[in-house]
Amino acid sequence: MSLRNKMSLMFVSIICIVSIAIGYASYYSAQRLILENKRDDMANTVNLIDINITEQIRTINEFTNYTSENLQLQKIAGEGIQGELDGELLTWFQNLSQSYKAISNIYTLNQDLNVTYQYKTESMFEDTEQLRGYCDKATKKTDRDIWSGLCSVRTEGYKKKSVVMLTKAITNPKQNNVIGFLVIEFDPDSFAKLLINNLSTFQHQHTLIIDKNHDTICTNNSVQADYTEEAIQRFDSGERQFDFHWANTNYHVCGQYNGITGWTIYSIISSADIFPKLTILRKQIIYIVILFLLVSFIMSIILAYTLTKPMKKLSEAMKVAEKGEFNIQIVTRRKDEIGSLIRSFNYMINEIKLLIQKVYEEKITQKNAELGALQAQINPHFLYNTLDTINWMLIERGEDDISDIVLSLGDLMKYSIQGDNMVTLQDEIDYVESYIRIQKCRMEDRLNYSIDIPQEARIWRIPKLTLQPIVENAITHGIETKPEGGSLKISAWVCDDKLSLQIKDDGVGISEGDIQKIQSGQGNSIGMHNVQKRIQLHYGSEYGLKIRSKKDIGTEITMWIPKESSE
């Protein structure tokens, strides 16, 4: 796969992931926000219904408190005397029934639960034991209205109907005992119209009021759904606002308990009814994501082409360079990283051309030098053979001192014409000793020397002619210029996988300025500078000569050879 296709695929993949993630997050963020708002609306709806019920009940409670204290009503309830009500009490009954259309009947009972007065149509409570239970509660709590759940009564014609009943105990103010009961019946249907309709905020929101027996007092939905049992069980367990799953549908429930009546108000709605517009939003998000992906795909192709076109030129130029053709340059006006890369390529090609030219010239120079060296070897060989002849003639004549000088000179000539660039420290020491012997014959007692090198150091390999230039500089510029002469010490030791070499003399010393000239190659000691450069070229710039010197005291030169050179 080409780089362009890879970049296009990468861009499209990233954009797809980001787009889907953003779309997913947007959709579910909107869903969560809508759900929270709807839950708040449901809670407000339930709370409004509860407030409405409480306000209506308080107003009715004021009426029941007033009527229960009416002497005429007390007489009717206690003595069971039927008669016409006085104007004031009758007006109260009329006003109450007109204000609250939910009231279907008002009547009084004596202690035996016999009807002593009935304001509206005659009705009969079917379950006497249930009625007795409500009256007993009213007897125990004479200051409160006792609200029932759904009760079944028979009207004229013995037709059954369900009502919600309020029971209030009527007491004798003198003896403070219960003499009867005031009972008000409410029509659940009228009650529902009064308390629920027009309060539900959703078209399909199911709002209902449940009594203590889990019977539905009223609802805005004529069809009793099966899921209400699940919602009631969850509410009874202590949950007030919750979600549940029923018949492959998610439902949201908000409930509130009314402490006066003992009823529970529920508001239930399905997710499908909460999010009717969310489906449209989901489709819009999908369309936007698809459109964004198409545009991004086109833009990624254009971007990939823009980025890979100069890279393609660079790749073609590199293929040409691989064939050894370096007369190539890429023209670019880009100021970005790709432009910088192309300019670096052009610079690299120019440097390679210069390097090739330099290496070629160095090879030619090296070949010429090798040829000259081969030619020059003729004279050293001839001189070495001549010196050997002279040495034997001196031995025959008994000139041993001169013979030693000639022999040392021959060793020097022999060592110099050897072709190895790397030698053991032992070989280098032998060469240096030959040189020192010649110098000692010249200087006699003015030159003393010592060599302290352990056996493990003698096998290390070092560059050829490393020590001789330093020894020569120490004798020529340090000891010889001193009238009384001096001593020279060559020592070595192995430490931390490195070989340390040290040449120390007690000559006239070297000034700081001369040390800098030696290290820079500007002084008279060209040999020491060459040693410095050869060591750094062979082992790295961190190696080289360390020169310490004091005027009229002496000079100490130290060098370090890494372990690799011992192989």
From TrEMBL:
**Pfam families given in the database record:** HAMP (PF00672), HATPase_c (PF02518), His_kinase (PF06580)
One GO MF term: phosphorelay sensor kinase activity
- Intracellular or extracellular location(s): Membrane
- Keyword field: Kinase, Membrane, Phosphoprotein, Transferase, Transmembrane, Transmembrane helix, Two-component regulatory system
Task: Identify the residues that the record assigns to the Histidine kinase domain, covering every copy.
Answer: 467-565
Signal peptide location in the record? none
Judging by the UniProt lineage, the source's domain of life is Bacteria
- Write down the chemical reaction(s) this protein catalyses: ATP + protein L-histidine = ADP + protein N-phospho-L-histidine
Tell me yes or no: is Kinase among this UniProt entry's keywords. Answer: yes
What top-tier enzyme class does this entry carry? transferase
What CDD domains does the entry give? HAMP
Q: Which residues form the HAMP domain?
A: 305-357
Transmembrane feature ranges: 285-308
Query: What is the protein's major site of localization?
Result: membrane
Is Thylakoid among this UniProt entry's keywords?
Answer: no
InterPro entries, A to Z: Bact_2-comp_sensor_kinase, HAMP_dom, HATPase_C_sf, HATPase_dom, His_kinase_dom, Sig_transdc_His_kin-like_C, Sig_transdc_His_kin_internal
Q: Name one GO cellular component term.
A: membrane
Q: What is its EC number?
A: 2.7.13.3
Kindly give the Gene3D superfamilies that the UniProt entry links to this protein.
Answer: HAMP domain in histidine kinase, Histidine kinase-like ATPase, C-terminal domain, PAS domain
Name recorded for this polypeptide:
histidine kinase
Q: Which organism is this entry from? A: Blautia liquoris
Organism classification: Bacteria, Bacillati, Bacillota, Clostridia, Lachnospirales
